[in-house]
Amino acid sequence: MVDATADDFYPLGPFYVTDKEFDNLLTMTFETYMISPWTNMMEDTCRHPVEIPICIGGTMVILREKHEGELLRGESFLEKEAPPESTVRKFSEMLLRDCDSFEECRAFLCPQPAVTIFHVLIDIFKRMENAIFPISVRTAKVVEKLVLMEPVHPYDFKLADVLYKESMAFCTDTGGKGHTDKKVKQPDNIVDFLNTFYNCTYVGKQQKWRLVNVFNKRIFHDLHLIESNLRRNTIRFVIKNLLHISRRYVIANLINLRRKRDETWTLNTITTLPHVTEFVMKTIATQIAPYFFRFHPTICLQSDLAIRLMINIFCANTDRAWMPKQPLNAILINMEPSLCHERCVCGQGEVGGQHPLAKVSHL
Fold it and tell me: What domain range is 181 assigned to?
């Protein structure tokens, strides 16, 4: 994938949203978790409502509602082709120009299918003078080296290709290089490949959580460098709702496949979950990430990096990182050894008020 050029964006015009205009957009109120619009019935339970621009907040709420209806019918806008560009532009302009309330937003978008609403949301981000989420050079360098999405295993599509090529080597006249000398048998390439995919020897669990913590720290830092509270909350809102949409797709898809195949839940999850999860993460990230993140001009392959960044956010799966007013320690995964009572059957309970592993936990 190549970087987006100026021709991929709309020319500057009356509906080109500058940074200053973004801060003046009409807003609607959401509850603290930024999933449901705020109502008077929430006064006792929700003391910290969050303001989100109507053109983004209202569109996302209607998209989620439409998507739930599609999932009940066994379909999803993520699997459909994009609508005509002229239709998308018309509705995004209406939302930015004429929409003064959530009710008007609903009147505009409710007759439209979910796939159109999704691309209207993307079009709104395309019209921003600068992408809404600026990423520092240091974070970009981390993302360049970090891929949190593990290989889809044990039924990875690449595995079949490698097995086929290795098997065909035995059918050729010369055979594979590892079998030309019968006296000295060379190790097969397929052995290392199988070890990688079945044993996950490329990274340990503890090392993975350390990488997630490093990634979360960098994103948390960049988010809090944004001065505008409205912009920070809008970023949180979009990420949280995209996480919600992706999870609902995975759950509903697995349930539908289980019914069609007449399989048990456990078997269906093992065989299908990795592929379904990878599809939804890559589909959403490819569509929206290039217009959501902003990098320093010196960073290369920005579109690819934006997609990888959003996939890493999905894989990190840290909801608290996208909640308002969260301290840094609340978004990090605790890797300290658990404390047990002194008579625990594990034999590693507290001794003299201190866990025996606590002395080395800082290493």
Answer: 157-199
Same domain as 212, residue 101:
yes
**Helix axis angle, 157-169 to 189-199, nearest 10°:** 160
Q: What residues have CB less than 8 Å from 27, skipping those under 6 apart? A: 51, 52, 53, 54, 57, 230
| Three-state secondary structure call for residue 293 | strand
Tell me: the pLDDT tens digits for 222-234? 999 999 999 999 9
The model carries a pTM of 0.76
CA atoms within 13 A on the CB side of 4: 22
Structure confidence by residue, pLDDT tens digits, 29-75:
998 888 888 776 666 666 678 899 999 999 999 999 999 999 999 89
- Nearest residue to 50 (alpha-carbon basis) of 65, 21, 28: 28
Asked if 64 and 211 sit in the same domain, the reply is yes
E strand segments, 71-182: 133-134
